[in-house]
Amino acid sequence: MGERYQRQRAQQMHVWVLILLLFHISIHASTQLTQTPTPFKVGLILDTKYPIGQVALPSIQIAIADFYTANPNSTKHLIVVQRDSSSNVLNAASAGESVHAILGPGTAPEAAVVSDLGTKTNIPIISFSVTSQSVAPCCFPFFVRAAPSDAIQVRAIAALIQEYGWRRVVPIYEDDDHGASLLSLLVDALDDVEAVIPYSSSIRFSATVDHISSELYRLQTLQTRVFVINTCVDLAVRILTIANQIGMMSEGYVWILTEQLTSLLGWIENESMQGVLGVSTQIPASERLNGFKRRWSRQFLIENPDADPLRVASDLSNYAVWAYDATWALALAAEHLGLVPNSLNETNNSFNVLSTLAVSDTGKSLLEALLRIQFDGLGGEFQLVNGELSMTKPCRIVNVVDGKARQIGVWTQNEGLMRPLRPVIWAGDSMVTPMGWDQPSSGKRLRFAVPAPIDPGFQSFLNLEVDKTTNQTTAKGFVLEMFEAAVRQLPYAVLFDYVPVEDASYDSLVEFIANGSYDGIVADLTITAERSMSVDFTLPYKQSGIAILALAVKDKGSENTWVFVKPLKPSLWGISTAFFILTGIIIWFMEYPSNEEFRGSWWRNFGTIIGFSFSTIVYAHTERITTNFSRIAIIVWLFVVFILTSSYTANLSSMLTVKQLRPSVSDINDLKRSGANVGYLQRSFVKDYLLKLGFKESRLLPLKSPQQYAEALTTGRVAAIVDETPYLGVFLDNHCDGYQMSSEIWKTGGFGFAFQKGSTLTADLSRAILKITETDESSAIEQKWFYQDQSLCSTKDNPYTSEKLGFESFETLFWITGGTTGLCCVIALIDFYIQNKDKLSEIVADNPWKTSLRKIWELFSKAADNTDNSSKASSA
Predict the structure, then answer these.
(1) What is the DSSP letter of 790?
(2) Alpha-carbon torsion (537, 539, 541, 544), positive or negative
(3) How many of the other CB atoms lie within 10 Å of CB of 430?
(4) Strands 395-401 and 277-281
(5) What is the tally of structural domains in the chain?
(6) Alpha-carbon distances, residue 858 vs 47, 589, 823 (angstroms)
(7) pTM over 0.70
(8) What is the pLDDT of residues 849-860, one digit of tens each?
(9) Does one domain contain both 399 and 494?
(10) Are residues 573 and 641 in the same domain?
């Protein structure tokens, strides 16, 4: 009976379970039927006659299919309403159904128009192809840029320019808002790498072949051979084709393509692309990207059956990737919205939505959802910051060879251009890196002022010769050769002429440059603070200072009494004395415990230290050394003393044996107080310098040649001549006997070349001067134009200008002896501490520091007494 009941009970339970299961299935099925995704209409404005539209359309279709395959439970479904913008983008935007957002359009001018209407209607405009800063979320709040900004690629282009040392770049851009916007960014980026844009070429999309040819021929007349081209594909094809025909794709030319061309290389003819460089955003490789590329190629060939399958399969445009990610982001943002009305908020429910300026109910919510979206897309992490794609991915640098883009390098925002770059095949199939410039067939010639006439006797600095037949000016001399050597180092050609300026002071020449009469000054022009307010100076190509030239007089004995201290500089005297005393103290300390000769009263100990120290100068120390540590220290010290005394003796002998001459005037203050006349080189700034020092103008006598220098000094017309050291050096080259030059009394900025304020030549020539001064070229030029070492006469027969020995000459020796002596002392202290460790601990622990020091000394003295007793006992 019980078993039968149990079986009936089990059968009833099975029936109920079956009923509940069927009920659940029916409920789930009915729910599925009632949760049909809400259509979410999205406008798509593209011109499918042009590459961006053809590339983007398959990507958008694939993105929608992929999204709803990955999200089968979506509550909304994107319905794309496509409009063609080929005729009029405004009509395309307005002649459509009620949409919640718009994808596209493809170009910056179209995007500006549509974004303006989108702002008025609160409809988000999501662009995957407009990278121009002329259309930005700051100007159009409902504009969303789902592609990297131009601000990134221009920095990569500037880094590429800097890498190859090109200093001048000519942009060729389409005459529209995008072209002008990128030009502004490029100017700033190039300025950061110290490159400039001497000329920019804007070409309209509608330009004829003749107009493009005329503009390219004009570019050929310039010296710059580096071009950055930023146009749409159709215009770029026409420009590059004509450039190839007229020889501008040959060796020596450099063509760099921006993102909008590099990402669409498949649409540009191969013949006109050989050797060009391109910059584009690097899309990270992945299996997902490879799968998308295969499906995109199939879809593209279905919609464009005439396309080349091989080219389509090999080249995936970045625009295809960005269109895919933008569509995915829009679908994802739609899922975050609540209930969506089937139409926009409009009074007449018109078909022409934008033209009636109806305001979207979902626009603000959709925009906010878009700005919060973050996911891993085909192009990497997708995240919008301030309405723009946050793009931290690197840029790739490609070289087009045989119709294929070959990556040669990578640029990142943090690291810059990653080195080394792969070899480049340049235009004309050349492997030689172009200089970036060439001698132009025509162009402006710069006019450089040269002072004339040249002061006689100083033609080694500068000399002008005018051919009376041709009226051509030939310039030569040290200054001109240095200038032309620097010009040869420039990464571009400079066309210039030397223009003699008659009877003008150097300050007047500076004023001529400041007011634009000339482009620069090529002369022995001294760099001063006052002049630098009006012109820009290069780095000095010749160092200079101001000194006094006077008659040489024999040095009186009373004035030369202390000549024996002159071989060494004060620093060496002081340090040597300190080491003598320090060495004596340490030897006394180490010998005190074991040597009676080093003990006694304080006065006796002091005398022992001083006597022992300085007697080592002549090796006459009589004290016996007993400890090994003292012997080591004294041996090293005696070696140092030997070197010092030998060097001192040699230098003193040189001073005492030469003819003792000195300038009759060597101090500018003495010269000022004397009331005597002073000479200076005419047209020099030295006159202003003397006036500032308080000299009366009536005492200043202008001179113009070395012969006048000699005559004025010999006849007594002037007591001295104050001039710059390069000129005085030239004078002493030919008038060595009877004249002496003092040491520099004032340091000047040196000789430099001057140019108008803001001239790019200033920085470029400064670098060039550094290059030639770091090589032997500068020395060779100087030796060519000056007969001998200009310092020869200023140092010959003059003990006051003889080189004194300083501490730097013996620094290593002092380190050796100091280290050895110090180490020996430390070891002696350690030995004393080990022998008296317990007693020292008691003294330090039980007494204040003054008492401790006294008792430690008593312990030290006691140890010395014990040593004496031990030695006496052993002798007994």
Answers:
(1) T
(2) positive
(3) 15
(4) antiparallel
(5) 7
(6) 105, 14, 24
(7) no
(8) 777 777 776 776
(9) no
(10) yes
